[in-house]
Structures are given as structure tokens and as C-alpha cells.
Design brief:
Largest sheet of chain A: 8 strands, mixed
Radius of gyration of chain B: 18 Å
Strand order of the largest sheet of chain B: 10-9-8-7-11-12-15
Largest sheet of chain B: 7 strands, mixed
Number of strands of chain B: 15
CATH architecture of the largest domain in chain B: 3-Layer(aba) Sandwich
Oligomer: heterodimer
Strand content of chain B: 25-35%
Shape of chain B: globular
Order of helices and strands of chain A: EHEEEEHEEEHHEHEEHEHHHHEEEEHHH
Largest interface: A-B, 50 and 39 residues
Distance between the termini of chain B: 28 Å
Radius of gyration of chain A: 22 Å
Bound molecules: flavin-adenine dinucleotide, iron/sulfur cluster, FE2/S2 (inorganic) cluster
Structural class of chain A: alpha+beta
CATH superfamily of the largest domain in chain B: Nucleotide-binding domain of ferredoxin-NADP reductase (FNR) module
CATH class of the largest domain in chain B: Alpha Beta
Structural class of chain B: alpha/beta
Shape of chain A: globular
Order of helices and strands of chain B: EEEEEHEHEHEHEEEHEEEHEH
Distance between the termini of chain A: 51 Å
């Protein structure tokens, strides 16, 4: 279907229609001085007239001079928090008739999420997690059921943040796949060009009032996206990157960054593609054993523990593992990069370690 | 991903801290496996750990494991009594490449609990002895009391089919055998380096030295296979813990050729 235009009441109708079809709406909203993904019920919950400024180790929200609903960039949370939550039950077990009876935790009633305002880099991150968690004969059941039901209303970025570099990673700022509908906010808070990605997206769009988009509106979409490209706060050269990292495990830069890194794991928690997990076992008072999965971080000392010691004891080796995996060995494992250029790890690092700067340093481009 | 329920049918103490346990799953029957593969063993409410299958690959009704108690889960496994149940899923991982050893001399070098994943390979090679040329086992333990599979060792030592060389780090007064590193015994076994394959499993430091010595003597690096050990939480490529450079050792390991591993094994804390 050709592009259409909706106004703010059209957007409200869209959200209402999704809610009426039984979707649990997850969209950007302001919580604790940050724009995060959380449950929303309509456009009133979206961060109207709010933006963010981001730099290495720096994040602030502030007021905009307009009424824009999507005038900000990637925040501390991502759709991963809902599709692949930090804690998820895997199975329960009971001792019964001289055996253990295992029951996989099924998620038949897991909410069908409709994500509102998902950015291109986030769609790319979801595609990566699909590859990791659904791409082999083993399947993460929780992820699979939440993912299968999800409806995606994407937003093309018309502004980029200080730590964004999706353009370098080829993942944005234009959403090209993985969405049901995609919006571009062409007049802040008032006018949206809307395009469809799937037939269910088209069906939904047909149910609300819209006008055909003319060449002028389409032109404004292109302008907005080029504006975001121009504003990219960061850049990363990806040519030969995989080999650069894998072939340089003894590069002196690892010592330097290892000295600064606090091994806090913020970067891995904020990253929309990081998938590492650990398991937890407990027994309830009525004798049932539960096993669950919890996000884990390669920055933790226990992550590589063998009895008596950890393989990666130094901060240097843990940062090297993270970066080499993300930008190097991820290609060997999954046929793609593990980084989508969202900039979260840069923004949320308490000491401002910058993945793009580390890569440039490895290339000998900064001292 | 869901474990099956297995009941402990027999248990024997190998050493003060190591037990061999025989399990069965009356409901679903056998566990077919390739020598070198491992299972994820779940102790009710305690946790789950990777343990190699140590049984005869042709007698798959029994799931046989040899476990050294070193922490929460392994100690709980060692404390099980016959009749008690655990969960087990698998088998996982790459096996020993017996096909690559066919027609060659085969040297098996192991230290400590590392002999557990090699026991099925030894049984298998002896069951089709004609597929291989000279066959030898070099096995090192800390002390004579730490030697596992003493009955098997007696049987293999008295067989003309395999040359068995055993050494300990520290001897006791009753020990008449060798003392020192497994590599000291390499010159004693017969092999024609260019046509030799080696299967090695033990502490990483030991595997490093063995691989170095074997290749220095002319065994091709692609014929030397090591079984690496890393923390494993899922065994299906989800948890990320078992990464060794580009490999998820649970899926593309734990057994890989030294040819493939050598470069990474030179990197500290990889
Ligand atoms: C492929 C493979 C095969 C193995 N086969 C055997 C075997 O046949 N017999 C045997 O006795 N042991 C074997 N091990 C080692 C065994 O898995 C560990 O001793 C066990 O995980 C320790 O867990 P724990 O809870 O008893 O100890 P803790 O020290 O309490 O362990 C805490 C956690 O750290 C991890 N961990 C600790 N040590 C190891 C380790 N050495 N390897 C992997 N993860 C570890 C575990 O995930 C565990 O949950 C094998 C390991 C691997 C990777
Ligand atoms: S590594 Fe950093 S920039 Fe790349 S996807 Fe993860 S958080 Fe975003
Ligand atoms: S790079 Fe920054 S955010 Fe990541 S673990 Fe190190 S200090 Fe924490
Ligand atoms: S053990 Fe989890 S990825 Fe290999």
C-alpha cells in the first residue's frame, strides 16, 4: 500500500485499535528522568515535547520547543526488556512416583505486545536476537511465544543522538524491515507519514482515517531521514573490523581500556543484542523446584568460572571478550555483527568508554 | 531443553572424591551417544552441570557418569544413593573423531578426571581394534589413590591390543610405576608421527604441553584433538558462557583439533 498520512487523532485511533485487538501496548514513556519502554495506553503516555541529550557517560531529558512525540533517541531500555526479559522461568520440577516430572513453563497467555515507536536499530537488534534464540534447533520458548505475537509500529528517526551510529552499522535510521507499520513524524506532534510492512499492518491502517501521502510529504520523510544521517553523533568504520579484533588480542589498547573499565556490566544490560544468561534454581515451600534464566554479563567474574578460578580474571580480558564477540566472532557464530549502532553502551557507561573510540584506537586512529 | 528423569541404579567409589554412577531412564530407555559427548545433569533444586558420558557406547541402556565432587552440584551428585533421581538432557557436543584416527596409530593422553570422556573412546577402539594401528593410552593422576577405573586399567594393561602407560605426580611407598608428567611417557609408546592421531583430555596446562610435544615430534596438528573445558549453563548456544573465541564449545566443541585451537590457546584469559 502506498504511503498515507495520519494526524494525531489518527495515531490515537491506531493505538486504540491495537488495544481493542487485545494487544498490550509497549511504547516510550518518561520514567525516572529517562525515556523508557513501558506499558502505555495512548498518545498521552508518550513523551510529548521531550527530548534527550546523550554523550559518553551522559544522559539527560529536556523539553523541546515543539510537541513532538518521537523527538528523542534510544533510551536505557529496549524492546529486549519485554521480549527477552531479564528473568524468565524455564521449567518446574516435582518429585512424583519415584521420578522427577519436568514441566516446561509455557506462555500461552503471554501478552501479545504491540511495540510503538520502535527504531530501525531496535528492529535490527530484534532480528539479531531472533537469529540467536530461534535460529537453531534449540528454541527459547518464552522468547519465541512473545516474539511470535508481537506487532511492530516502527518510527523512522528524523533526528539522531550524540551516541548514535546506526548509519555506520547499516541498520538505520530508516526502518526497512521487521515492522508492521512505520511512521515518520513529519510535523512534530501533528502529522505522520505511515507506511505498511505487512498485510496485518495494512489491515489495521485501513481501519483508521488516513489520507494519501503526496510527493511533498514523501519528500519530507526523505529530508527527515537525511537529517538524522547528518546528525549521527558517532561513526564506526566496519571494513575488516572482524579480523582487526580477532587478530589483535594482545593490542596495548586492551590494557588501557581494561584500566578504565569498572566491569559493572551496564553496557551489556543496556545493549539490545546482548543475550548471555545464567540459570537459577530454587525449591518452593511446597517442594516444587523451579529453574529460571536471568540475564548475565561477560563482565562478571563468575561468568567464566571453572572450579577454583575464573578464566577471565582481568578487566582487560573481559572487555576484550565483549568487544571481540560483539564486533568480531559474532560474525562467525551468527553471520552478522552483534552491534546495531544504537549507542546505549556509550551513553550508559559510567566512565564513558566509547565502543567507536575503542575501534578507532585499535585501528591506530586515536591515541 | 527439558531434562529426562534418571534413576541411580549403582554407584561405586573410584577415589576419595570421585564416584562412578550408573543411571537408567525406565520410561524412555537408552541414551545413544558418541564417545566424547556430554550430558547436562540436573540435581533437584540445586543446579545443572555438564558431565561427560563415561559408559560403553554399545550399552546405551545405562547412562554411566564419573563425577568428581568439587562444588555444589557435583558434590550433590556424588552424595546420591541408589534409587534417587536426577534430571539429564543431551547428549551434547562433538565426539572424538574416531573416523579421523582410522588406519593410524592412536595415542590417548589423559590426566585426572579427563579420562572419563575417553573411556567410551577406548572401549570403542578396542571393539574395532583392526581399524587402528598402534594403540596406546598414557594416563596421569595426582597420586596412585587418584587413579580412576582401576579394573579397566588392569584389563587394558594385560591386553596386547593397547599399550597402557600410567604415571603419578606423587608416589606412595607401594607405587612401583612411573612418577612425573604424562609427556615423559611419550617416548615410550610406539607411533609413527605423520600417521598418528591423538585424543587428549585433562587440565588445560597439561593439554598444552602434550599438544606441543606431539606436534614437535611430527604429529600433524590437525590430527591432535583436545577436549576443552569452559563454564556451561545451557549447552545449546544460548547462555554464552562456553565461548572460546568464535566457538560455543557446547555446540562446536568441546572436542576440536589443535590445528583449529592452537592460535587461540596462545591467548591468555581468552
Ligand atoms: C564438557 C564438559 C564435560 C565435563 N565432564 C565432567 C565429568 O565427566 N566429570 C566431572 O566430574 N566433571 C566434568 N566436568 C566438570 C564439571 O562440569 C564441573 O566440575 C562442574 O560444573 C562444577 O559444578 P559444581 O556446582 O559442582 O561446582 P561449583 O564450583 O559450585 O560451580 C559453580 C558453577 O560454576 C560452573 N563450573 C564450575 N566448575 C566448572 C567446570 N570445571 N566446568 C564447567 N563449569 C564449571 C558450573 O556452571 C557451576 O554451576 C565437565 C565439564 C565440561 C565443560
Ligand atoms: S554494542 Fe553498544 S552500540 Fe552496539 S548495539 Fe550494543 S549497546 Fe548498541
Ligand atoms: S565498558 Fe563501561 S559499562 Fe561496560 S562494564 Fe566497563 S565500565 Fe561498565
Ligand atoms: S553452554 Fe550456553 S552457550 Fe554453550
Amino acid at each position: 500500500m502506498a504511503a498515507r498520512v495520519i494526524d494525531s487523532s489518527g495515531l490515537e485511533s491506531l493505538l486504540t485499535a491495537l488495544r481493542r485487538s487485545g494487544y498490550d501496548l509497549i511504547g516510550p514513556t518518561v520514567r525516572d528522568q529517562a525515556i523508557v519502554y513501558d506499558h502505555v495506553s495512548g498518545t498521552d503516555d508518550l513523551p510529548r515535547g521531550i527530548t534527550d541529550t546523550q554523550e559518553a557517560g551522559h544522559y539527560r531529558i529536556e523539553e523541546r520547543s515543539d510537541e513532538s512525540l518521537f523527538g528523542f533517541n534510544a533510551g536505557p531500555s529496549s524492546p529486549k526488556d519485554h521480549l527477552y526479559p531479564s528473568h524468565d522461568e524455564l521449567f518446574s520440577a516435582r518429585r512424583e512416583d519415584g521420578r522427577i516430572r519436568f514441566t516446561a513453563t509455557v506462555h500461552p497467555n503471554s501478552p501479545r505486545f504491540a511495540f510503538i515507536g520502535v527504531r530501525a536499530c531496535e528492529l535490527a537488534a530484534i532480528a539479531i536476537q531472533d537469529r540467536v534464540l530461534l535460529g537453531t534447533e534449540a528454541v527459547d520458548l518464552g522468547y519465541s511465544s512473545r516474539r511470535a505475537g508481537a506487532f511492530m509500529v516502527a518510527v523512522n528517526c528524523v533526528e539522531a543522538g550524540g551516541t548514535c551510529f546506526c548509519d555506520s552499522m547499516g541498520t538505520g535510521p530508516r526502518a526497512t524491515e521487521g515492522f508492521d507499520l512505520v511512521l515518520t513524524e513529519v510535523t512534530p506532534g501533528a502529522e505522520y507519514v505511515i507506511e505498511t510492512g505487512t498485510s496485518r499492518g495494512a489491515q489495521l491502517l485501513a481501519s483508521i482515517e488516513s489520507l494519501p501521502a503526496g510527493p511533498a510529504e514523501e519528500q519530507r520523510v526523505e529530508c527527515g531521514i537525511s537529517n538524522a544521517v547528518r546528525q549521527m553523533g558517532r561513526r564506526m568504520e566496519t571494513d575488516g573490523l572482524q579480523a582487526l579484533l580477532v587478530d589483535n588480542p594482545e593490542h596495548p589498547r586492551w590494557d588501557q581500556v581494561g584500566d578504565r573499565c569498572l566491569t559493572c556490566g551496564n553496557c551489556t544490560m543496556a545493549c539490545p543484542t546482548c543475550f548471555c544468561s545464567t540459570t537459577e534454581d530454587r525449591v518452593t515451600l511446597d517442594g516444587e523446584a523451579l529453574r529460571s534464566r536471568r540475564w548475565d554479563s561477560c563482565f562478571g567474574l563468575d561468568f567464566s568460572s571453572l572450579h577454583g578460578h575464573s578464566v577471565r580474571a582481568s578487566a582487560r580480558s573481559r572487555y576484550r571478550q565483549w568487544l571481540t564477540h560483539k564486533l568480531g566472532t559474532w560474525h562467525d557464530q551468527f553471520g552478522m555483527s552483534g552491534c546495531v549502532g544504537c549507542g546505549r553502551c556509550i551513553t550508559w557507561c559510567p566512565v564513558g568508554i566509547d565502543i567507536t573510540e575503542e575501534v578507532a584506537a585499535m585501528r591506530g586512529q586515536v591515541s | 531443553m527439558l531434562p529426562r528423569s534418571f534413576r541411580l541404579t549403582a554407584k561405586s567409589q573410584e577415589t576419595p572424591d570421585t564416584f562412578t554412577l550408573v543411571f537408567e531412564d525406565p520410561e524412555h530407555g537408552e541414551v545413544r551417544f558418541r564417545p566424547g559427548q556430554f550430558m547436562m545433569i540436573y540435581v533437584f533444586g540445586v543446579g545443572e552441570v555438564p558431565i561427560s558420558i563415561a559408559g560403553n557406547p554399545h550399552k546405551t541402556h545405562d547412562l554411566i557418569l564419573t563425577v568428581r565432587g568439587v562444588g555444589a552440584v557435583t558434590n550433590a551428585i556424588c552424595a546420591l544413593d541408589p534409587g534417587m533421581v536426577v534430571g539429564a538432557r543431551g547428549p551434547y557436543g562433538s565426539g572424538w573423531p574416531l573416523a579421523a584416527a582410522k588406519g593410524r596409530d592412536l595415542i590417548i593422553v589423559t590426566g585426572g578426571i579427563g579420562i572419563a570422556p575417553l573411556r567410551p573412546a577406548i572401549i570403542e577402539t578396542l571393539s574395532r581394534r583392526d581399524d587402528f594401528r598402534d594403540l596406546s593410552l598414557i594416563y596421569g593422576a595426582r597420586t596412585p589413590t587418584d587413579l580412576l577405573y582401576k579394573d579397566d586399567l588392569l584389563g587394558w594393561e594385560s591386553s596386547a591390543d593397547i599399550d597402557v602407560e600410567v604415571t603419578v605426580d606423587r608416589a606412595s611407598s607401594e607405587w612401583w610405576g612411573d612418577v612425573g608428567l604424562v609427556t615423559r611417557l611419550l617416548p615410550r609408546v610406539r607411533f609413527n608421527p605423520p600417521n598418528t592421531a591423538a585424543f587428549v583430555c585433562g587440565p588445560e596446562v597439561m593439554m598444552r604441553v602434550v599438544a606441543r610435544d606431539l606436534t614437535a615430534r611430527g604429529v600433524p596438528t590437525q590430527n591432535v584433538y583436545l577436549s576443552l573445558e569452559r563454564n556451561m549453563k545451557c549447552a545449546v548456544g544460548f547462555c554464552g558462557h562456553c565461548q572460546f573465541g568464535r566457538d560455543f564449545l557446547c555446540r562446536t566443541g568441546p572436542i576440536r583439533s589443535f590445528h583449529d585451537l592452537a592460535e587461540r590457546m596462545r591467548v591468555d584469559e581468552i
